[in-house]
């Protein structure tokens, strides 16, 4: 089955969490931004105008928010992987999911706007 060209996009969902390898990151916490690109066939939803024919972006965002705020990860790679795995399990309509985690206050002793990790996982891989 070819990957769908249709997408649901969630841009920069802000969360406050305590992810990171340093003890201060666990103690103080910081803001993260989660962006998701869900690939699925939206044709039926477009024709029927029925929520049951798609994945609710509110439900998808809620799942990502819960994972990011209720669990602690040392690596944002692990956070992104967990969001992908749980979303693909929870929403069988998804063909693929790309998750980007932005960490604007990464403890790096350089002047930068932040760091990010982006991964894509597909149902058929």
Automatic annotation (TrEMBL):
It comes from the Bacteria. Its EC number is 4.1.2.25. PANTHER family: DIHYDRONEOPTERIN ALDOLASE 1-RELATED. The keyword Lyase applies. This is 7,8-dihydroneopterin aldolase. It catalyses: 7,8-dihydroneopterin = 6-hydroxymethyl-7,8-dihydropterin + glycolaldehyde. One of its GO terms (cellular component) is cytoplasm. Belongs to the DHNA family. Residues 8-121 form the Dihydroneopterin aldolase/epimerase domain. It is an enzyme of class 4 (lyase). GO terms for biological process: folic acid biosynthetic process; tetrahydrofolate biosynthetic process. Keywords: Folate biosynthesis, Hydrolase, Lyase. NCBIfam families: folB, folB_dom. Pathway: Cofactor biosynthesis; tetrahydrofolate biosynthesis; 2-amino-4-hydroxy-6-hydroxymethyl-7,8-dihydropteridine diphosphate from 7,8-dihydroneopterin triphosphate: step 3/4. Catalyzes the conversion of 7,8-dihydroneopterin to 6-hydroxymethyl-7,8-dihydropterin. GO terms for molecular function: dihydroneopterin aldolase activity; hydrolase activity.
């Amino acid at each position: 089955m070819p990957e769908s060209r249709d997408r649901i996009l969630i841009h920069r969902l802000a969360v406050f969490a305590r992810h990171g390898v340093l003890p201060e990151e666990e103690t103080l916490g910081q803001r993260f931004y989660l962006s998701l690109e869900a690939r699925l066939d939206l044709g039926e939803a477009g024709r029927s105008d029925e929520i049951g024919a798609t994945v609710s972006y509110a439900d998808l965002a809620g799942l990502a928010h819960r994972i990011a705020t209720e669990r602690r990860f040392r690596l944002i790679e692990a956070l992104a992987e967990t969001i992908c795995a749980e979303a693909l399990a929870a929403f069988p309509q998804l063909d693929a999911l790309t998750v980007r985690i932005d960490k604007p206050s990464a403890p790096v002793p350089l002047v930068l706007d932040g760091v990010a990790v982006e991964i894509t996982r597909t149902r058929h891989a």
